[in-house]
Amino acid sequence: MADTATTHAVVLRDIGKRFPGVVANHDVDITIRTGTVHALIGENGAGKSTLMKILYGVQRPDEGAIILGGQEVQLHSPTDAIAHGIGMVFQHFMLADNLTVLENVVLGAEKLHGIGDAARKTVAELSDRYGFGLDPDQLVEELGVGDRQRIEILKVLYRGAKTIILDEPTAVLVPQEVDALFENLRVLKEEDHTILFISHKLDEVLAIADDITVMRRGTTVGQARPGSVTKHELAEMMVGSELPTPAKEGSTVTDEVQLELANVSVVDPRGRSLLTDISITIHRGEVLGIAGVEGNGQAELVETIMGIRKATYGQVRLGDVDITSWETRGRREAGIGYIPEDRHRHGLLLDSPLWENRILGHQTRRPVAKGMWIDRSGAREDTDRIIEQYDVRTPSTDTLCRALSGGNQQKLVVGREMSGAPALLIASHPTRGVDVGAQAAIWEHIKRARKDGLAVLLVSADLDELIGLSDRIEVLHRGRLVAEFDPRDVTPQDLGAAMTGAHEDAS
Ligand SMILES: Nc1ncnc2c1ncn2[C@@H]1O[C@H](COP(=O)(O)OP(=O)(O)OP(=O)(O)O)[C@@H](O)[C@H]1O
Ligand SMILES: [Mg+2]
After folding, report:
1. Which among 2, 116, 194, 313 could bridge 163 via Cys, Cβ 3.0 to 4.6 Å?
2. Ligand 1, residues 52, 405, 411: which to mutate, most atoms within 8 A of Cβ?
């Protein structure tokens, strides 16, 4: 056992965890070597987040042992986990926008170092040492997702974490930011930190991991090392069967315009331009992809089309109807499906059952409404249909949304927004957090609907998804459309260059 203590940061033995109607973890055995990046992969609902929450003291296991540095420990809360050098960064950042980097890092840990000059010095030193490049006095609201994530990591380092759990850290990052994160992880590793990394992106896993553990249906089903396994083999270990290969298809683009934005600009109350002179058309049967580094106007573009924000100048037309001044509800009723970027804030009621979530945003339409009334049995039946067609893993339609795994929540939103044959789908990161099998299935659903005339605006950080689904790709940079590409002859590198503004600088 003595050498286990020096080489194994974490050993999880025979871990089991049940929720009502669900075995989230059973017979889980994992050994994490100190100073490595250990990737945890598996289908949506396989039990990855639950296992990591057990290691972080958020959930208590029903059985099994947690062994840290050779000692069995009891973790009753995150405070216990932190005391044992375990830190976790959740997918939904928990930062206060109106505070500085320093304040966010120090918040809640004042007892540890106080909040004076010594804290500022420590934070600056940590940021330098790991190459984070953060300014302690900058306001968080001015920072993009990549920096926000670094603040979250800094927060756990500041609390003394030696083992850091990252639950799908790259889901919200574009490729350049993923590279930057991986660089940070390499430095952390050199400094003898241990990283637990959950991801559905197998290329990334192969690029960064030293060890890979595969989970399926609540348990660990395999181990691999990047050098001796392919992406395809990993996918098969995850699902236990062969993956479907999405069929290549010809163009379904028609000449009927479904959505048109004419010279749309959005200026915020402080007079800052968020979108400048955007003109786009999407035809029936066409997918228009929007590429861009997060924070370059994608959110504002989507919100303007959905009526959540009003265009300061310009027009929005659905078919030949000017909807510029319409409210969101009217736009939805006119046949716009909407997959929002943040499913927790805008797409779901986490403390309501699945069937009530089927109604959300659709409360005036069949099959969830009859006349002015909500049709509960209609809503339940249609929820069953979505569960079946989109493979949402849940005990029942009465389960609360919060109890679903992240990817299964996303599948529910996609299924709902594809309901009732929408004329136009505004899809922000439609497959964020879903596993490779479910991603292929969602792509098929969208392609099938496109064949029947669906027009789609697709915003995605996943360049393979943009290239694979789009008929045309436009690049947004600082609120302007700066480049257009034909997905048949564009590479992720070309797109990446345009997204970071290289196009503009060159011209
Ligand atoms: N608080 C909870 N109450 C009830 N069931 C839960 C709860 N948390 C998780 N579950 C269930 O446990 C199982 C494992 O979920 P978990 O979130 O660990 O999956 P995951 O592997 O992280 O999936 P994803 O890739 O979609 O994030 C799922 O069936 C989920 O519905
Ligand atoms: Mg998860």
Report:
1. 194
2. 405
Ligand 1 within 6 A of CB of 393: yes
Q: Which ligand is nearest to the CA of 90?
A: 2
Indicate whether residue 387 lines ligand 1 (CB < 6 A).
no
Chain centroid to Cα 115, Å, comes to 33
For the CA of 54, the nearest ligand: 1
* Ligand 2 center–CA 394 separation, angstroms: 14
From 174, 426, 469, select the one nearest 296 (Cα to Cα): 174
Contact 504, 476 (CB under 8 A): no
- Maximum Cα–Cα distance for the chain, whole Å? 75
Q: Please report the pLDDT score of residue 56 as a whole number.
A: 96
Cα of 406 from ligand 2 centre, angstroms: 5
HSE, CB side, 13 Å, CA atoms: give it for residue 16: 9
Using DSSP's 3-state secondary structure scheme, residue 248 falls into coil
Kindly report, as residue ranges, where domains of CATH 3.40.50.300 are found in the chain.
Answer: 2-239, 255-335+424-446+453-507
Q: Per residue in 419-458, pLDDT tens?
A: 988 999 999 999 999 998 889 889 999 999 999 999 999 9
Pair type for strands 211-216 and 37-42: parallel
Per the listing, tokens 């009723």 go with 333
Q: Which H or E element spans position 372?
A: none
If you measure from the C-alpha of residue 90 to the centroid of ligand 1, how many angstroms do you get, rounded to a whole number? 14
Point out the ligand nearest to the CA of residue 391.
1
- 343 DSSP assignment: I
CATH placement of domain 255-335+424-446+453-507? 3.40.50.300
The CATH homologous superfamily to which domain 2-239 belongs is P-loop containing nucleotide triphosphate hydrolases (3.40.50.300)
Token pair for 162: 């030696």
What's the pTM?
0.89
Distance, CA 53 to ligand 2 centroid (Å)?
10
Q: What is the dihedral of CA 345, 350, 352, 357, to 10 degrees?
A: 60
Which protein residue has the closest C-alpha to ligand 1 atom 13? 24
Q: Is the pLDDT of residue 246 over 70?
A: no
DSSP 3-31: HHHHHEEEEEEEEEEEETTEEEEEEEEEE
DSSP state of 493: H
Residues 6+ apart with CB under 8 A from 19: 403
Strand order in the sheet with 257-267: 273-283, 257-267, 313-318, 321-322
Dihedral sign of CA atoms 19, 343, 140, 193 in order: positive
